[in-house]
Amino acid sequence: MSLTQLFASKEHKYVPVGSHNGLPGNRLRSKSVLLFITTIALVVFAALAFTLVRPAPYGNAQSSCDTIQHGYQCQNDISHYWGQYSPYFSVSSDISDEVPSGCSITFAQILSRHGARDPTASKTAQYNATINKLQANVKNFTGPYAFLADYEYNLGADQLTVFGQQELVNSGIKYYDRYRELASRLVPFVRSSGQARVVESAQNWTQGFHAAKIADQRSERTDAAYPYPIVVIPETDVCNAFENGPDGNIASDAQAQWAAIFISPIRTRINAALPGADLTVLETVHMMDLCPFNTVASPNGTISGFCAMLTEEEWHQYGYYQTLNKYYGFSHGNPLGPTQGVGFSNELIARLTSKSVDDESSTNHTLDGSNDTFPLGRRLYADFSHDNDMTGIFSALGLYNGTTGHLPNTTITEAPQANSYSAAWTVPFAARAYFEKMQCRGQPEELVRVIVNDRVLPLTQCNGDRLGRCTLDAFVDSLGFVRRRGDWDQCFVGNNYASHFG
What molecular function does GO assign, one term (predicted)? Predict the structure, then answer.
């Protein structure tokens, strides 16, 4: 689609909405001129991204490692322990994720992380410096380190990899196939937080959904609404105390304590094998990070040579290191972590109940009150964001409340012992949560079910049944923290609180 076509099309609505690094916050705080400039910039960006990005089309052969239905399935003993840097994989579930007999899905919301990406700009500079130091100071690379002699650092910064693009195409296909009865005749309402890789992921997802719809012989095999409208939400900070307050070092402190325990022997071993390397603790972590980042930089997800430098046990320890970052940064380990997910969670309640958003935290009343930018009564919704935002949302919703005793930072707690909580199980690259409503024979009220990366959550907070379902009323009633806007009043302690609610 050309820029001219995009501007002329009434189907494309790119709406600037202030937020904390993604979807959970929607408060506008900019002047009208700035909003206009931001809107135009987002339109131009989105048009260019849609025009230039062409991931593999539906029907192409999938990589041997990554599949549409089950995600990444190569060397699972290590690749499922890379924390938030793991490629999406299907998490085992004690409860079947099939639609129960006698039931039909009436509503399906996906909340997705963007696909696999290159390191952030600051990290890619640090990784490159670590490699340059190694190659300048080490004379002989042998054994599992032999590949480093000729390794060239060529990772980019911040953007999706080809592998990451395909992850979201696959996700769109899978969503269509899963909710075919609705998807074959309906169009999803799509929103994305404003960072380039997230908008691109949303577009990749719609490509997969559209291609699956066209290929479905049971559908009308037409899709005149494509390309689908995408509401784009710029990313800004709205909870001052969370961003700049005294608890900002909780996550890094927890990681540092665990790193002091598990990294020391790894660092000693690598430095002994590579005389002259003299890696620091942080540089040793860089070497670990380069395993997942180089793997997802391969179009087919080929396991990187960096991955052979650690044992299976050590990769479990590394995965826990990343889990501590998410838990103490954006979940129950941080006093204001769950509050960051309150805004989106109240929007979810509104969508589930088809009632106006009732929220006085981060949501924007003007936008959430418009049927164009926040329609109610739709059956299919798709939102795209970041791992940190999703972690806050899951915590606000109480989905992993069994971890509220706080994860230890001196011993490892694997996901099965942490109420199924880990960064890899919850927010890997291309993570997706499905929030479903279903109508079942003999049941007067609709039931709600939550599925995170194919694992059906038991929903103990609302006395979920053996199939992980609560009645809609029970699910909403269990969200008292969300409906009370969490601890939002703590976000602006010492500031003019009223000024944030224009």
Answer: acid phosphatase activity
